[in-house]
Amino acid sequence: MNTTMNLFRQRKGIFGMPTIRGIRLSLFVSKAFIAILMSGDAHSAPSQTQQSSASIPLRKITPQLKILCFTRFLIEIPSTAKVAYGRLTAGGEITRVKGGAEKIDTMIVERINANKENSKLFSREIGLDLVAEKIHPSSKENIKHLVNVVGFSEYSIRSFFKLNNDAFILSELGVPESSVNNFLDENVETAQFLRARKENEIPNEPGICIDGAFSKIESIYEGIELGARIKEYPDVHFSIQIIKNGGYLQKVDLAQNVADAKQESKSNGLSKWVSHLKILRQGKRVVNDWHGEEMLLRIPSGNDNPSHHKFTFRASGEKYDPLHPFVEMTLDTGVKGNQSASVEPSLSDAEALALWDWLLNSIRVRPNAVAAKASAPAKPGG
């Protein structure tokens, strides 16, 4: 991956400076306090209580487990859990379309049609007329490109290819005209590192597990977002976000985040509600050699929303180290659909703690996840 592309993606904020998809605890708590829970009728237990999960049994959970591979790590989850993926990155931004292998041309035509207004509004640069707004074959038979004009001298690039029965799309948005051909070539190179992978396959070689695929690419662009729903407790949602750091580390201070949010909420007349916020556990925690912090909250009820759990673990990681990425993990109860604080939690405080600890304690590095003596990828600008 060349230096020009590295600098461009660093500037775009892909993985040089982590993007935390809108779930910073300070923002989450203050919005919950102010926008959702505008009532003083909270009735949860007193705040600042510390609890341990110490061998609390989970009433209904299946004893059968499955091992899930995510980037270079493994986690054990109940075999009944349903897993959904968000952002996937292995050398570039990747989307999987299950069963879409024979629908690639249709998907490209749909995107061309959806971009017709932009295509009329913004003129294409001389030299890109031959590739923009049409199915454009690449130098590899299995890959097809689409270049859309989205602004003045600004383009989006998507490269489509098949892996078994699935379609995969490599995407780059906001690309200047001068970089279009470079990104097309880079997408072809990135695709060559990918192969299909079944959910239960645990590779025994260096590389990156993503949804339905495995990549052997060595890149500073590496990450995953996934969520798991447990059948026996349908209101419980567990999520993981992994981002390999570039030259910047995200600061972690969950206690300060909560303190700031509490102060903001008090200034908005919610002092009584804030007094019922229950901290089940907080402080430093090490998960799989990730030195981070956890904040485990029981959010009070209010404004017809039930009390619920909001657990967060976050670790800054280390620069350019695939085994020490930025990590954020959350567990929410009371979820219905994708809306939190919607139903009464199916887990008690002790059970929520037990499930949280069980999941986090099962995380480990996949064997042979990194090459034994591989040199680190070149840093941007180096």
Q: What are the key terms here?
A:
2 domains; three-stranded antiparallel sheet; alpha+beta; 382 residues; disordered N terminus; single chain
Description:
It is built from eight helices and 18 strands. With 382 residues, the protein is α+β, with helices and mostly antiparallel strands. It folds into two domains: 3-90 and 207-365, no CATH class; 93-192, no CATH class. The strands form three sheets. The protein has a twelve-stranded antiparallel beta sheet with strand order 5-6-7-8-4-3-12-13-17-16-15-14, sandwiched between helices. It has a three-stranded antiparallel beta sheet with strand order 1-2-18. Strands 9-11-10 form a three-stranded antiparallel beta sheet. Helix 2 (25-36) packs parallel to helix 6. It is globular and about 65 Å long.
Name the poorly predicted regions: 1-50
Fraction in helix: 10-25%
Number of helices in the DSSP assignment? 8
In total, the number of domains comes to 2
Main pleated-sheet profile? 12 strands, antiparallel
**Share of residues in strands:** 25-35%
Strand order of the largest sheet: 5-6-7-8-4-3-12-13-17-16-15-14
Order of helices and strands: HHEEEEHHEEEEHEEEEEHHEEEEHE
Number of strand segments = 18
Shape: globular
The secondary structure category is alpha+beta
Query: Radius of gyration in whole Å, from Cα?
Result: 23 Å
Mean pLDDT: 82
